Amino acid sequence: MQQWVYHVSPEVNAISQYPTILAVCISLSFVMTVVVCLRIWVRAVWKKSFGVDDAVIVSSAVCGIIYSALCITQSRLGLGLPLKLRPNESLNTYATVNFAGRPFYMAGITGFKVALCIAYLRIIRHSSEKSYRHVVWGIMIFTILSHVGGTLVLFFQCSPVHKSWRPLTPGKCLPNPAVFYPLAGVSIFCDLIVFLTPIPLWLKVRISTPRKLGLMAIFLLGLFTTACSIMRVVQIEIIARDGNSTMLILWGTIELNVGIAITCLPTLIPLVTFMRGRTSKSGPMQYTYSTSDGRSAATSVKLKSVGLHSSTMRSQTIPTGNNTIVKSGSFSSLEAILPVDSQGRPIQREGVESSNGNGSQSHIHVVPNPGQITKTVQVEITRTDNRPGPEQSWLH
Predict the structure, then answer these.
(1) What is the DSSP letter of 372?
(2) Between 53 and which of 14, 119, 214, 347 could a Cys-Cys bridge form, CB atoms 3.0 to 4.6 Å apart?
(3) How many CA atoms lie within 13 A of 354 on its CB side?
(4) Does the residue 391 lie in any domain?
């Protein structure tokens, strides 16, 4: 069987770190691709709201896949070996592939940060947070300009430029620490401000504390990319000492793929909610109704019943005081709530109580026809106005 690293002996091939490089690049690229595909399905197919931020994250994912492929290619040319054991025959090819990967890495990490900023702007597009919008625009512009500047520095690190991919060409290059330390510092700073920017927004959202904490936790996960950037900084000293850039490139691959995947997590909230609803044995049913002042509102109805349930799914209307509740889903049949006679007419109800406040509670006692089973259904209704907040805006 042909050995993995070109132009080296079997003994040198055996000590190469290429198995680690393959495992990291392939596994993380696969996970990242799956997450991005789920995001596309949720946004484009399910929600039909594919936006600019989604297009940017797809472009970033393509860059991530290309960068991982180039890392794997470099492992065949000597990446994963100490510098003194790398084959001279592969020197120019290795340098060319390494140079080609730089713009894809920079474009990838820029992309997922910009995608988050665009998503923030979409969330607050109907709000009165003008100052917040200005801050987000400023962060996005700074991120783009700083990363474009970093890419140009990597392109023109050597003079003449082609010395970057022809290392034996006479000339000079900027020392790696002088280039990589500032780039890493800018990347870490952008990570922090991009992932921490929405935290004040979530603190103002009027949702349950567990959901609020969950949303903030998702964004705080993005700080893992900051940890990856810090690990890259640690490797700069190693490169300055022995020239081995293996772990620097590997941590860059981890940072890029994990950053893209984490950026997609908030958009998968509808899918997670849907799957939890499918697997839950019981839970609130969702209704919409029109109030007496003509506003549309969302209603969550919890049922507690004893008796037989029909498997027939149909759409029914439940009058409750001044409100009319119209079933918009079919988690269970409304015949389990209001049985109907043989002609499809609702059976008489007694003891209906309702409230026009933010919540109402109705106790319905079904008066059966002769021979039917008596059933008591307790309906707990919680009403919220149908005005999208930041969390809902994220989902559309």
Answers:
(1) P
(2) 119
(3) 14
(4) no
Residues 257 and 286 in one domain: no
Number of helices and strands (H, E) in the chain? 12, 9
Report if residue 290 sits inside a domain: yes
CA distances from 144 to 69, 147, 164 (A): 25, 5, 24
Tokens of 43: 């946004």
Contacts for 20 with CB less than 8 Å, ≥ 6 apart:
80, 250
- The confidence score (pLDDT) of residue 7 equals 94
Structure tokens, 67: 């960068």
Of 168, 150, 166, whose CA–CA distance to 252 is shortest? 150
> pLDDT grade, residue 342 (50/70/90)?
low
Instruction: Identify whether residues 171 and 259 lie together within a single domain.
Output: yes
Residue 120 shares a structural domain with residue 154: yes
d(CA 328, CA 154): 56
Give the range of the structural domain holding residue 147, as residue numbers without chain letter.
10-276
Answer with the residue of higher pLDDT: 390 or 103: 103
Question: How many separate domains does the chain show?
Answer: 2
Question: Phi first, then psi: what are they for 382, rounded to 5°?
Answer: -120, 125
Neighbours of 268 (CB within 10 A): 18
Rounded mean pLDDT, 71-77: 98
CB 17 within 8 A of CB 249: no
* Residue 14 sits in the same domain as residue 160: yes
Specify whether 222 is located in the same domain as 287.
Answer: no
Q: 247-276 pLDDT, tens per residue?
A: 999 999 999 999 999 999 989 988 888 888
User: Of 221, 246, 276, which closes a domain?
Assistant: 276
R_g (Cα) of the chain, nearest Å:
29
On the CB side of 178, how many CA atoms lie within 13 Å of its CA?
A: 6
Contact between 102 and 151 under an 8 Å Cβ cutoff? The reply is yes
Query: What is the b/e burial string over 23-59, where b = at least 16 CB atoms within 10 angstroms of the residue's CB?
Result: ebbeebbeebbebbeebbebbeeeeeeebebbebbbb
Q: Which of 125, 86, 175, 7 has its CA nearest to residue 394?
A: 125
